[in-house]
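Model the whole thing, not chain by chain.
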Amino acid sequence: MSERLNVKDLITVGIFSVIIIVLVFIFGMLGYIPIVMLALPIIAALVCGIPYMLFLTRVNKFGMVTLMGLILGIVMFLSGHTWVPILVFTLCAFIADCILKMGNYSSLKNSIISHGVFILGIMGNMLPFFILRDFYMESMRTSMGADYVNTVAPFITNEFLIVLIILTFICGLISAYIGKIVLKKHFEKAGIA
Amino acid sequence: MELGLNNEEKTFFNLDPRTKIFLLVILSFMVFNDVPFYISGILVLIPFLCLLFSNHKKTAIIYFVLYLIAKYIQIYLLPSSTGIIAIILITVSYTASRMLPILLMGYYTISTTKVSEFIASMERSNVPKDITIPFSVIFRYIPSVYEEIKAITNAMKMRGFGLTLKSLKNPLKMVEFYMVPILISAVKTSDELSAASLTRGLSSPKKRTHLVKVKFMLLDYILIAIAIVGFLVYAFYFIGGH
Amino acid sequence: MINIDNISFSYNDEANLENINLKIEKGEVILLCGESGCGKTTLTRFLNGLIPNFFDGKRDGEVYLNYDAISEMPIYEIAEHMGSVFQNPKTQFFNVDTTSELVFGCENLGIDEDEIKKRLNLVVSDFNLENLLDKNIFKLSGGEKQKIACASVSAVFPEVLVLDEPSSNLDSESSWHFEEIVKKWKEQGKTVIIAEHKLFFLPNVVDRVIYLKDGKISNKWAIDEFKGLDHRNLGLRQLNLENLKVKRNDYYSKDNEFFELKDFNFKYGKKHALKIDNIKIPKNEIIAIIGRNGAGKSTFANCLCGLKRSCNGELIYDGKSFNRKDRLKSTYMVMQDVNHQLFSESVIDEVLLSMDEEDIDFAEEILSNLNLIHLKDAHPMALSGGEKQRVAIASAIASGKEILIFDEPTSGLDLKNMMKVSENLRYLQSIGVSSFIITHDYELIMETCSHIIHIEEGRIIDNYKMDEEKLKEFFLRN
């Protein structure tokens, strides 16, 4: 399956990237509420399952999912989330792609797991907070005051990061499963999936 | 008469797409931290200038006012407020002052770059089709999605279940109401757009030619220079340990 | 030039085309017509190579272009010889600005830059596009979009042009402009193949007519022969609009109740997009809203529905005044793209969703009256365009709407489906619903409407009881 991506595949990737970008950005606005910001990956994982599962019905060769991860990473980068998402999103998407390939792009189980992994790419947006934790804390204390730091501090720990990753992954699985149900309920009946 | 590809009034402030992306990249470092205005000022002004000179005057001014409000909150209001209000103010103002320049630069980039310019400059830099085509589609499809969201919202209003506090009680239903029509049209668009592009020879292996000339002009160099200076000021501020 | 040699095609075992044989000479203009689903779109897909390059299915036979088998050519090579224009202007453009779109095909094929510049200048003067350069395509009117689509395929200098229902979204004036475009191609010696429902703008350019029925060529006529036929019997739209006669004689009288509209104003920036001080419109009638593309018809409809926040105005009837919010409750718009207003997983649920208290018996009654009852468990999105429209109507009836507004309900419909829309409108009238129809479809108006509102530049310039002469003046002045 070393077939190259053709124009139709590339356009499909573009269109579905738009859907995911729009979703992530609309729900990303919730990030203006303190603390909720840290739960963004979970929210993203919950809402992206439906478009992702529909996207997969049009994927039958290696590369489309990886490419989408790269594109989303670049978009995150261009919208002010540092260059970390490019690496993280592409890597997650690549692993997701491999999982799909193992299931020959037709296994439901693999599709659901692949979404769990794919959506971890969103973590790339948060990682800088954790990697540069001390640096952040320090500058927040000077600029935003101790009150704020004390509220936020318990959440920016390695333990919390691991919990967040696990939760995001699980939510990704659940939402992919919901996506599959919606696919059956709407898109298959409508004859487009 | 030579049929102009660029109208007269546009030629004077017309950046190469690569310059725009470079500026975005530089600005995106700002998100790392918040600094006093005299340090970040140059970077903050870049999107303002770009918007101001390219028929987005209103946006430019709104942006600047919002930025000043955010800064005002940080400097004058925050020291005297405490508790939950302070936390909300902090989040809003700091997110705003860090994100606004980047978001506005992104807005400027998307609204002033033609798909053809984008492709031309990317291909000049040897970026493969696999990346330029999806990105061109993104440029082109975002406005359509916006129109669709508007149409669906209208349809829901007429049916009496528009976006209200009451309807938010069942957010899953709302997500479904929006998502299903949008996704159905996404699938339709991706099929029809692919078919149309194929009949226009998009899959041709020949090297594409470009009518739009993209090359670095004086203005590009000036802005890049300004951005680098702004970035250096910003970087030294940190290296110098404030 | 083109030799269609015994082609057949089926998607999922359903025969779509059977044993089509046709020879087309260089410079001919061919019209493919027939009812919806007759296979004319499939035939165009054979010509432009989308079958087999894009659509999968069981295929037999071959189409030859100058003795070369099309199915063996890569699609980008076909693109040099065949230009395609499609029905939906929203999805056939790759660019956002017009100039880039015009040269897009040439750039893909790697044509030399100076040559592209020459060709651009040529199509711009050929198609009179001076004012359309460097514009946002998505802000253009339907007619302008289709002009850009035609010009941009023209720039590649193809020998053959394949057009699949290009006029679906055009008003009558733009349709006549479209005739000019085809004439131009004909003068340049190009071969043109048009699949169309709307025929009235074509008799002076077409040479031959191919009539398809159930996937087979059922008849071929020279255009003069075709002009003398009874098109209604063939299930086709009217070829000569002069022949159409008003179909109704049960128009309203002076004693009819009236709507009164007061102070409907809406501005885009500083420009008045709509300005209505005071007009009266008969109640419980079928009212056509006419005017050119971009005249403000949609703005009027949106204001009437209460969708424009800044447009207040008053709608008065039955001695009551309805402000914007009241109107949102009592009116409903059936959009041109009905897909945006269907939300449920089955037709019956869609109707129930509109009711404050679910009443299955009433819902089923509505569905039977609209001939939808056999589809009640189907998914709305799986239905045909006409059926979707009826589901939207059903949901409006269920929520007790008294005023329905239709945005171009017959664009792209064949005669049979247009007649169905007309039936639905009369049914709505019989149950006391008033309908407003934004339309460019002269045939539909003659068939159904009793009152006309003519809008230009945001003003109502005429408001009259059905009058054949006046209408003709608007639709047939060319």
